[in-house]
Design goal:
With 218 residues, the protein is mainly alpha-helical. The protein is 75% helix and 0% strand. Helix 1 packs antiparallel against helix 2.
C-alpha cells in the first residue's frame, strides 16, 4: 500500500481533513494539516509494525476473538448470560447493553462509515501473516464497528453493574486490538471506534437513569 494514496477514496480521514484545510490555507490550518499528515503516517507505521511482529502464540486466540465479535455475537451472548443469571440488575444491564449496541450500529455502521469512505488496509502488501487472517469485510474501514460495539456494550452494562465495567472494557479493548492484529483495520479506525462506542455507552446510561427517575416520580 502506497504511503501517498492515489485516489480520494483511499485517503485516511486525517489526510482528507488535511486536504480540506490546505484548500484554504491559513497559518493555523497549515499547522493542523501538517499534524494530520503526520498522524496518517503514524497510523500506517503502527499497522505495519504490528504486521511485522511475529506473534504465533497470540495469532490463533486473537483471530477467534475477532470472529466471535462479528455481528455483536459476543455481546449478545454476554447479555443473555446477564439476563438469565444476573437478577433484576442483570436484566437491566443486559437491556441497556443491547440498546447501546443497537444505537452504535445505527450511528457507526451507516453514516460514519459512508462518510469516511476509507478503504480497508492492504494486508498482503503489509505482510500480515496468513495465520492471522479473518474474512476481509466489504464495508469501509473507518471507524471500527467491532471496537465501537464493544465499548458501547461495556459502558452501558458498567453503568448498571459497575463491577462488570472493567472486565468488559478489557474484553472490548482485546476485540479492538484483534481487528488490527488480523489486518482488517488500521489503529486509527479502532481508536476512534472505541471512543465513539464509549460515548454511546455513557449516553445510554444517562438516558436510562433519566427515564428511571421520571418513572419513579410518576
Amino acid at each position: 500500500m502506497s504511503d501517498a494514496p492515489d485516489r480520494g477514496s483511499r485517503m485516511p480521514p486525517e489526510e482528507r481533513l488535511a486536504a480540506v484545510m490546505e484548500a484554504r490555507p491559513t497559518p493555523r490550518r497549515s499547522a493542523a494539516a501538517k499534524a494530520l499528515h503526520e498522524l496518517a503516517q503514524v497510523d500506517l507505521a503502527v499497522y505495519r509494525a504490528i504486521a511485522d511482529t511475529p506473534t504465533p502464540t497470540l495469532d490463533g486466540p486473537l483471530r477467534r476473538l475477532s470472529g466471535l465479535a462479528n455481528h455483536s455475537k459476543l455481546w449478545v451472548g454476554a447479555a443473555a448470560a446477564l439476563f438469565a443469571l444476573g437478577g433484576t440488575r442483570g436484566r437491566r444491564a443486559a437491556a441497556a447493553g443491547l440498546v447501546a449496541v443497537g444505537i452504535n450500529s445505527a450511528v457507526v455502521n451507516v453514516p460514519m462509515k459512508l462518510a469516511s469512505g476509507r478503504e480497508r488496509p492492504d494486508r498482503d502488501a503489509a505482510g500480515v501473516p496468513e495465520g492471522r487472517h479473518v474474512p476481509m469485510p466489504t464495508s469501509t474501514s473507518f471507524p471500527s464497528g467491532h471496537s465501537a460495539s464493544g465499548f458501547a456494550f461495556a459502558g452501558a452494562v458498567g453503568g448498571s453493574v459497575p463491577l462488570l465495567g472493567a472486565p468488559l472494557r478489557g474484553l472490548a479493548a482485546a476485540v479492538a486490538y484483534s481487528r488490527v492484529h488480523t489486518g482488517v483495520h488500521y489503529p486509527g479506525d479502532v481508536i476512534v471506534g472505541s471512543v465513539v462506542g464509549a460515548a454511546i455507552g455513557e449516553a445510554t446510561v444517562l438516558a436510562a437513569r433519566a427515564l428511571r427517575r421520571r418513572h419513579d416520580r410518576t
